[in-house]
Amino acid sequence: MSKHNNQSQSSRSYTKSQKKKRNERIILSILIPLFTIILIGAVYLAKLFATVENEIEASFAEIERQEAVEKVNPIDEPVSILFLGVDNNEDRQLGSTRADSIIYATLNPTTHEMNMVSIPRDTFVPIINKGTTLRYDRINSAYAVGEESAMVQTVEEWLDVPIHYYATFNFAAFLDIIDELGGIEINVPIAIDEMNSDDQMGAITLEPGYQTLTGEEALALARTRKIDNDVKRGERQQLIIEAIIRKALKAGSITKYTGIAETVGSNMKTNMRMRDMTAIAQTGLNDSFSISTHIFEWSSFTERGMDLVKIQPDSFEAIQSKLKSSLNRTQEISSSAKLDDASAASTNSKKK
């Protein structure tokens, strides 16, 4: 058996053995931005609404498209959102920024279903910007080429699905959110000796065990990768997001929502207006949607000195079909309802 086949078998084995665990964590990885949207869209207090509305308007940024995507009303039509997470800011000035996390989600207000898939950032795909295929590369490199515009075009073309909205979050923003919440409780899985947000080496040290972390400590735990690999790093980020959600949903955190909303608004880019977020909130997304997560089967390979990810064709086609179906469900239900109405009318007519 070749080295590549061994790698493929090992990768699939790892994926299957971790599937349940990863499903739970992928759900949580999407819930923090969705929870934020619901929080922002809901009108708890007039003051909160006014504060958030100003922040959201400031975070609005349209993207360049070669062809306009069809307009939809999130209240009664399926929509799709591309969530992007980046780990860079003006203070870090890392230069070329790439997307650390890429999640595509569909929301169907008629069936009350959410479908989502997490796209491995090293997936080898054609990078597209301004309608032109530039090269084959890691999918996260599209952000360095043309930020959200290139990411949206690249994902749309690769998955062959529309992207109605995008929302980009800077992971460093969670530092301020965690501090607004008064810290988070988390079972730290490993010991770390890491730099802080000012890149001072050895400024943050943590031992394994259940404890309360500040924003600085949580960010250090999320960023560290030198002790293992990006897969484990991603798992730690999911643990942190889970802890944020648990703390944010506690009753005592409600009074802190204004500060959280201001932090999110100033650290987010999106092409959603306040009315779009409110429409999404009005679907009842926060408690009545069923959530289906999809995991790509993949294998690893090396090209041009890069460690890359190849998505298995059968897995790609199956997940792509589910995503497309979730966006067309309203039309199918509408057609079915018309047939039922016609059948009922015919039956009533015969009875007369």
From TrEMBL:
Pfam family, one: LytR_cpsA_psr
Keyword flag Transmembrane helix: yes
Gene3D superfamilies attached to this UniProt entry: LCP protein
Composition bias type Low complexity, residue spans: 334-346
Chain ranges of the Cell envelope-related transcriptional attenuator domain: 98-248
Keyword Membrane: yes
InterPro entries: LytR/CpsA/Psr_CW_biosynth, LytR_CpsA_psr
Region (Disordered): 330-352
Organism superkingdom: Bacteria
Record keywords, A-Z: Membrane, Transmembrane, Transmembrane helix
Residues passing through the membrane, by range: 26-46
Leader sequence segment: none
Family that this chain belongs to: Belongs to the LytR/CpsA/Psr (LCP) family.
Protein name: Transcriptional attenuator, LytR family
Organism of origin: Alkalibacterium subtropicum
